[in-house]
Structure formats: structure tokens, C-alpha cells
Amino acid sequence: MSTGAHGAPDHAGGLATMLSITARIQRRNALLWVLVLGASMVGTAAGVASLYDTPAKIHSYAAAVTTGNALLAINGKVEGIDSLGGVIQDEFGFMASFLLPLLGIALVARATRREEEAGRLELLLGGRIARHEPTLAALLVATATIAVTAVLFAVGLAVSGVAVAGAILYASSLGALAFVFAGLAALLAQLTRHARDVYLWCVMALAASYVLRGVGDTTRTWVGWLSPLGWAEKAAPFGAQRWWTLAIPVAVGLAFGGAAVALAARRDLGSALAGGGVGPQHASPALRSPFGFAAWLHRPAILGWLAGGVLLGGMMGALSKQLLGAMAGNPALAQAMGIAGGQPLDGFVAATQLYLAVIAAGYVVQAFGTLRAEEADGRLETRLSGTLTRIRWLATHTLVVLGGLIIVVLVSSLVLGLATTVSVGNLAELGPTLASGLAYLPAELVFAGLALALYGWRPRLFFIAWAGYAVATFIAFLGPGLKFRQWVLDVAPTTHVGNPPLGTAQPAALIVMAVIALVLAAVGCAAFRGRGVPQG
Q1: What is the Cα gyration radius of the chain?
Q2: Which residue in 93, 328, 365, 471 has the fewest CB atoms around it within 10 Å?
Q3: Exposed e or buried b per residue across 4-26, where buried means at least 16 C-beta atoms within 10 angstroms of its C-beta
Q4: DSSP conformational letter for 117
Q5: Is the model's pLDDT at 177 over the cut of 90?
Q6: Where are the alpha helices (DSSP H) in 220-289?
Q7: Which phi and psi angles does 401 have, rounded to 5°?
Q8: What is the pLDDT of residue 259?
Q9: Plot region of 380 (φ>0 → left; ψ -120 to 50 → alpha; else → beta)
């Protein structure tokens, strides 16, 4: 390690070097996150401001969405919803509740445990970099990215006509939420052995936070204070404006981050504080087969996204009876949710299935991203050095990913159907609920095909798959409510499904999407067969 003028270790110089390295590694991912999140917030704010341009329209919206508890469980309780800022918070609430935490998780996991798995941290620590500095640098870069995103949020809200104080507080509360999960990811990077485990446990924590906030809002109890999502909500940027609540996520994020830095300074490189013991001497027969190994590799992603789908489906199904009662007393609520006609229960199931479809699509993109990590870290070359061919390896992983997709879709839909059946007492809803979940499979396969094509052709362009997923999610959730033009709505594959069971699934569109997914997969396989391994 280099020393200063008096022979002391040059910690400042080491941290500066590590910050430079981390910023260079993360610059593309960080820029993508900032642009996608900033555009989502600005687009939502501008769309809401154009639609709800009079106090009467804002009041009508507020009166509709505050009826019953179902929408509270989805978007949370928005204090001051009878204002332009409150409407924006309510419309952007669900996206913010998982995109902002994912921002912190992705940036920190990529720069800590992922780099350690690849062996690159070992090379860095052989120089003048102290053990704790990679973790500290990852947190600082993630915090800077979060801060830039929050500033864009505040500016976008203010330009759209929201009061400056409320805009700053709302942006700060979302930034603090991302900071909590960045700290949690840094801590889990010390406790677990693989980056995929960091994602798994962070997603599980996010799902639990979502449920705790929903329970707290619907029961109006203190339970919401146990959730990081609840802390962001309690700031009430367009209501009472409780600035002091920002201290809670900041303190928790600092505690997580401080613990992570302290553990990184003492932990052996390559080890983990949980589950880091010596494994069995020989792999099980299942792990020695290509299919078994692929299933083991993708298991954390399957379990993490499945947990999110099950919790969302169960919670929404349990609230279905309350929602039906609310819509019966306030027809404007059905219009606010985009439920037309005289089938409110089918409309509720259709709206929930859209959320579950977005969860399933996120799973397939992350799962194919795992293949890129396997190649970049040098493990794919080892796998292909024997009798395992490229196409067999890729086909095996593709089958496992698709099997995981079917599991996520079927189990989530089953939980939604059963919870709805118990809530409304009508067993006839179970079949249509399962069928509507399966109807979204072709749309989800389009995301899988795009991810596979990008990985097979040029792995370094895989970020396009995540960007496409983010754009499609934004359009699917907010496009109809913001009155986007039809050609914009058509960009999202979910638009072409037909909104079952409220609407009729469109067989022709489903077939076309399945063919598109198959063509994209074929392109990816052909490109992967002919390109170099590894390839950036």
C-alpha cells in the first residue's frame, strides 16, 4: 500500500482511485438508470398536469381513488391527494416503490459482490486499495447517482407546476428510499456468497416492505412504520410535509452501509459471513448435469420474483371484496382504475394480472442477464471446454428460464385466484384468473426473446433489454391513464394481450408475439454460436 509523507497508508489516495474505477465501471448503468427514472417521472408529471388541469378534475380524481382500501394497498396512502402533486404521487407510486429500490440494489451489487466473484477485487486489493474501500466507493457512487435522480425528479415536478417545497420533499423521500436499499445491498454483499443472492434477499425485503406498508395503510395502524416504503409515504410531501421522517431512512441506510464497510474491512476476500462454510466434497448428481446446474443457477431469481408475485397476488385478492364494495358506492373509482363496463371483478383481476405480467417480464430479463455475468466472469469458458456445446448450454438455460417463467405466472395467478375466491366467495373466478395469467405469456416471451437476442449478439448491449423493459412498464402502467396515443401504447407488448378476463384475449396478437419471440430467440442462438467467447 502506498504511504504518505510520514509513512502512513495513503487511504485518501486509495479511496480516490477506487472511486474512479467504480465510476468508470458503473457509468453506463448509472446513466441508464438516471435517464429512465428521470424520463418516467417527468413524463408522469407532464401527463398528469395536462389531464388534471383544473381543481374540479383533481377533486374528482381524489374522490374516486380514496374510496376503499384496495388502491391504498397498491399505491399507498397519499396525503394531500387533492392537489396536483398528490395525483402525481398516486400515479407514480407503484413504479417508484420498486424502481427506486432496484436502483440502489443494482448499482451496489454490481460494484461489490459481482466484482468480487469475478476476481477483479483481488487484483485491486493487491495494490494500495484497502479492503473496505471498494464497498465504500460503491456506496458513494450509488448515492451520487441517487442524488442526481432526485434532483431530476424535483426539477421535473416543479416545472410541471408542483409547489417547490413539496417537489423537493417528494424527490428526497424517494432518494432516501433508494439509499436504504443501497445500504442493504452492501450489507448483504458481505453476508452472502453470490450477487444473485444479494438480489434475492433484497427483492424479498422489498416485497415484505410492500406488504407491511399495505397492511399499515389498510388497517391504519403503526405497521406501516416498519416499512421503508412506509417511511417515504409518511413524509407527506403534498400534505403535512414531515421533513423529519427523512432522518429515518437516512439513519437506516447509514447503519446498513456502515456495517457493510466495517465487515468488508475484516472479512476474508471471497468468503461470506452467512453460508460461507465448506460445502460437500462432491456435487450432487443433479448439479453435475447441465440442466440441474442451470436450475441451481437461476433458482434465486425464480424465488425472488415469485415471492413478489405471490405477495402481490395474495394481497390484492384478499382486498377484492372491499374494492367491489367501493366501486358499487362510487362508480368513478372504476373509471379511475380503467375498468369499463359492468364487470368490476373481472376488471380488478385484469388490472392485477398486468402487475403480475410486469413482474414475470422482469424475471426473464434478469435471468438472461445472469448468462452475461457467467460469461463475463470467465465461468462459461470452463463449461464449454469439455463435451458441452454452445447451443446445448444456451438451450438448457433457456428451458430453465422459461420453466421459471411458467412457475412465476402460474403460482402467482393461482394465489390471486384463490385469494379472490376466498374474499368474494365465488369459485368460478379461479379458472378465468389462471387463463388470464397464461394469456400474458406471449408478451413476456417477447421480453425473453429480446434479452436472448441481445445476449447472443452483443452482450455489452444487454442494457437495452432493461431499458425496453422500463419503457414498456411505464407505458403499461401509466399510458392509458395519461391518454397516450395508440401507437405509443402499442410499443408495450402487454397492450396487445386484450386485458383478460375483462376483455377477450386476442389470439392473432398472441400468435404474432409468440412468433416474434421465437425469431428473436433464433437470432440470439445463431449469433451466440458464431461469436467469440467471452465477448464484451
Answers
A1: 24
A2: 328
A3: eeeeeebbeebbebbbebbbebb
A4: H
A5: yes
A6: 228-234, 247-266
A7: -60, -45
A8: 95
A9: alpha
pLDDT greater than 80 at residue 390: yes
What pLDDT is stored for residue 11 in this prediction?
56
**523-535: per-residue pLDDT in tens?**
999 999 888 888 7
> Per 3-state DSSP, what percentage of the chain is helix, strand, and coil (rounded to 5)?
75, 0, 20
Rounded to an integer, what distance in angstroms lies between the CA atom of residue 517 and that of residue 3?
Answer: 57
Q: What is the DSSP letter of 241?
A: -
Mean pLDDT of the chain: 86
Own/partner pairs, 527-530, CB within 8 angstroms, 24+ separation = 527/453, 527/456, 527/457, 527/458, 528/390, 528/391, 528/394, 528/455, 528/456, 528/457, 529/390, 529/391
Task: Give me the residue label for grid cell 392509458.
Answer: 480
Give the whole-angstrom CA distance, residue 117 versus residue 115: 5
Closest CA to 65 of 339, 434, 433, 394: 339
| Cell 412504520, located at residue | 225
pLDDT digits (tens, 9 = 90+) for 191-217: 988 888 888 889 889 988 988 888 888
Which of 527, 349, 479 has its CA nearest to residue 421? 349
Residue with cell 390484492: 316
Higher-confidence residue: 36 or 249? Answer: 249
In angstroms, the CA 364 to CA 367 distance is: 5
pTM of this prediction?
0.81
* Cis peptide upstream of residue 534 (ω within 30 degrees of 0): yes
| All residues at 6 or more sequence positions from 144 whose CB lies less than 8 Å from its CB, including other chains | none
